[in-house]
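Box S2. Input/output pair 1.
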Amino acid sequence: MSRNPAGDPLRFRRRALLGVWLLCGAAVVARAAQVQLVQGDAWAQAALAQQRTSIEIPAPRGRILDREGVPLAETRELVEVGVAPREIRDREQAASTLSEALGLSRERARRVVSSGRSWEYLGAFPTSVRPRLKDVTGVHLTRLLRRDYPQGQLARGILGSVRDGLGAGGLEQTFEDLLRGHPGRAVLGKDPSGRLRGGQVFQMEAPRAGGDLVLTLDADLQAIAKESLAAAVDSTEATGGDILVLSPHTGEILAAASLRGGVDAGLGFITEPVEPGSTMKPFTLATLLRRGRASLADEFDVGEGRWTQCGRTIHDVSARGTLTLERAVQVSSNVAVARAAEALTPLEQWEGLRDFGFGQATGLPVPGESSGRLRRPDEWTCQSRASLAIGYEISVTPLQVALAYGALANGGRLMEPRIVQEVRHPDGRRESVAPRVVRRVVSRRLAREITEVLVGVVADGTGQAARLASFNVAAKSGTARAFGDGAYERGSFYSSFVGYFPAEDPQLVIYAKLDNVAGYGGALAGPVTRAMMEAALASQGTPLRFAELSDLTRPDRSGAATGASVRFAATTLGNVEPEAPVTVRGRSAGAAGPTGVDLFAAPPAASVRRPSLSVRVPDLSGMGLREASRTLHALGLRVRVESGGPVSGTRPRAGSTVTTGDTILLRSGRADR
């Protein structure tokens, strides 16, 4: 009898179980082959992701420097320090190390390491703290790159800012691609809990720093301009103002500042156009002479200083009787200049203003520039020709006006403005930004004729407040009624003054404007322009060609050759009696401004080839940065600011003997945390 008959159920179950095991084995082998052969690379990458992580290493942004290499914006590397109290093993030792390395009090350091919180953030510190803290268990260090502006708020509107790692406004935004650099990457190890393994770096691509910008700005002149403008706004009770200094031959902007409501208005000198008033008269004159429609000797009868045209009466402040066209510009006769402009066709008058750059953006490489407003002739009314001749029905920016006067100063060429002098690329290449002529507006001979007219404005016209003791100045004042709430405001004016010197070979064009003041441009804005000229002559670092200036000094009343200078607060260069102070809204405006320059006094006489004067560094401890900078500038010293806050000391320190033109570092007592 067979022991395993065909129908034995056990045999069937054994074979079924064997088949199941074979199928399971085959499935395991197939899955193993799939995981190792087909999906092997993917699983290997997943394993690495659990054990390593990739982080981006930010790149330092490039620097922005002034024309002398003074840093205006730079990237500062700091270390952020945080403490995880629960990870600390020796609390007393950790507290001692934190106190010594970070300058914390022992009490605070003990509170931090004994805190019941999981994390304590202590702030950002200089990189010098890293060696002392990197091996302390429970203390975590993070690299931080912070955009720093060593000169404080100086030219911040032009520079812009950095937000979330990107340039915002000004040159930071325009040159973002150059400045931002290229970030690097690092691959770091992680432990099973996901935390980084300190010091375990598997791979790293180093970051590449951004390129640098070298500007045409002069940091010292910029500081002086800002202080002079602030003093003038305060003295005249203006609501704001602008000041601009540029080189007529290159279009380089050396200084630019705007204030509105007592605060920095950033790019107001290119974003906020206004009606200019009589500063437009030289361009009406230029168009008349260029077109052959008038001569300087042509006479105009202004009568009692009133002329009614198209139902509107134009008034003169003081001009009466018969005036030549030359004299009409010098005494700023609205009636005579408006009547002279009738010889021009609307198209000729429009083209004359357009050629000088009005009604179109200058092309300065910063965002937000306004083109102003110059309507086409087919949009004019019967009053437009007279209005445009004397600076109404047109809106212009301070930069447009300064460049137009620069064309008169340099022999008739309208220059493109320059704010960037050189671009330094990350790969080491250097690219200079060359001056560019936009167009020739008038001939050299005609520009010379108009300059001589403008010299008369300062010598014996409305611009006498801008006279220098030793140089001829060519300038023009402007007073336009302030416009608000749909109408002109009675008794409120935009008072402006623009001039260039020395008139024989101009090196600087200086524009000043005060907003909503109760006075005329020559009396209020003229002294600001003169103060900037004096400050430029006094500053060792100003880009003036002093050797050429010494050949242009003119004799004073005694016949001796003299040069113009600024009155230093603590050095004796000569004593002069100031002119009678100008009274503005019941206040005397004859006090010295914050730069140490008396904005409303006659200039003292001194040699242009100034001797190097030895001065002592004053004790500035406790002063604000503005007051301290003002004091040093008044001594003829250059200033560099380390950080914001009250001054704690200087380098060289107080009492040290230095030479005029030296740079003094202002230090703040505020910790960088």
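Box S3. Input/output pair 2.
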Amino acid sequence: PAVDRIEGVPPAIAIDQTNPVRSSRSTVGTMTEINDHLKLLFARASRLYCRQCARPVRRDTPGAIVDELLRRGQPLDRPRLLITFPIRVPANFTADEVRAHLQAQGYTRTHGPAERGANHQQVLHVVRDRLRLDAAQSQRLRESVEEALRLGGGRVDVWLDPGSDPAADSTDPADAAAEAPPWARFSSELHCAHCDIRYNEPTPSTFSFNSPLGACERCRGFGRVIGIDHALVIPDPRKSLRDGAIKPWQSPSFKECQADMEKYAPAAGIDLDRPWEALDADARRWVLGGDAGWTGKWKTQWYGLDRFFEWLESRAYKMHIRVLLSRYRSYTTCPDCRGTRLKPDALLWHLDLDERRPGYTVHDLMLVPAQRLRTLFDGLQQALADGGAPAAGDDGGRSGGEAAATQMLAAEIASRLRFLCEVGLGYLTLDRQSRTLSGGEVQRINLTTALGTSLVNTLFVLDEPSIGLHPRDMQRVIGVMERLRDAGNSLVVVEHDPQIMLAADRILDMGPGPGDRGGQIVFNGTPAQLQQADTATGIYLGGRRRIESPGGQPVAAGTPRIVLEGVREHNLKDLSVEFPLRRLVTVTGVSGSGKSTLIQDVLYPALRKLLRKPGPTAGEHARCLGADWIEDVELVDQSPIGKTTRSNPASVVGAFDPIRRLFALAPLALERRYSAGTFSFNTGDGRCPTCGGNGFEHVEMQF
């Protein structure tokens, strides 16, 4: 900057209002780094449940197996048990050949005939020992279990002995038919002994949608896939099929498809003159999916709307086909992961946080508001302090180091959640996309991240952190800033809110007016002194002058309106609302009450869609009425209007276009054959080749 001297500046962090995030992968959880700690916690302390039988899957140790058998045998009178281990029959061997090989090693008996395993491979249950279940024989039982685990590849099955004769051989088919399933099954690996399904060891990447190890293979961790949106294909459900409800078939290129549908519809019992919204589910299914016995020959039976688009996809190498498809595409929830972004196995791991429900998957936690999540993790911290929950795959006990590491992770997550709640963002979920947040919300999230990193001797520069906050929540932000200050940091805040101004240690008032009339420091002192000062800010802050708000205009009964019905996006609860037109309508409420969701996520996209204009997908709602009263709709938000560093107000409003044309008409310009583009710093030969029209250069400072 053009200054004479700068002294005493510590390392600085600027936290402004702009939302720089454009990636769909970025969420509140990734921005606050809570996701990084969550995936570590799940890899360390979650429990696995089988995808098929939903039983807990854990590593069984010999000691734990013996204790479990003694516990289960208490109601019985010293039952006789068979301890067996499974042996898979290789594809190039028969079961008898494997039995002969086992007999040569001293294992002469198998229990029951060979059964089919999960992969249709034959499995023999080889008897390791037969004994009475008695505490006096616990040492022998433990040795048998250990040997069976070693020989069975980590698996052991325990059967109630059907007979007491030691010489009895249960391989007889007649006996096998009467046999019951194993009394108990155990595994020393991450393996469901009941379903014969093995699971991979959990790693932090298993629970991350930003890692190829954890991300859903279909949507690549985005949670959405792009496909044909039937709402765009049939934009007006009030039309009938004969009147052109299916929009792409009304063009001359595809009139043939409309004729085919009208040809086959009568035989299928489809009423072509009934509005699309009045057709039953079977009729719609026929229009979209075609005849059930369709053979692939277009002219023999009805192929359906979906197969029409499949045919177009096969010809997407043509430009005009790609343009056509783009008109009817939109993002929909991924059908494989259903929006969780993760592979199915990642959702088999559960973390016990609440006695009222069995466990939370990592995606379940992503959908819980931060305020509620904070309560859950406060409870987990207390549980860990009282004794702890077992780590993944454990038999119940953990080393002191494991418990301490898990407790530290839970404490770090709880701390960051507390910071989120303190800045008034307790309503956000960790799965909320960062690009959908307002500038004020992003700024406050950055504040919590700064608190979580425990920085000291740092200069924080904040640009209006009160943006978007209700006055009720202002003290929370003030508390966070005071905590940063008390930790040994300095804060310079650009602010207009009286609450934050009065909480400052020192105030610099710039003025005395805007534009050319500004540029001076008109006051430098405490808030109390500013209230007495004779500056524009001091006069209003001291209450010596106030601004009276004008009264609103009454809304007559016949005023045109936009009507939204059944809005259920985010935290909006089946809301119906009317917006009178030709009026200034204000939507207000506390932070997080659903204002931006209602206007930006539902009303604006719904109107764009009804006006047949491209736009984002509208949030969940029943219907939007009144769009025929308006010609167009524009969204004016806080995002920057310029897309490049060369953008300026004159170019945005289009003033430079006639200026450039005027210069191109100058005599010297005509003589040199200059065009209007010659006077543009965006393109062409007229702009400076060194800086590319920016007016400045980036110089790498290699200190």
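Caption for Box S3: The radius of gyration is 35 Å. Residues 400-422 form the longest helix (23 residues).
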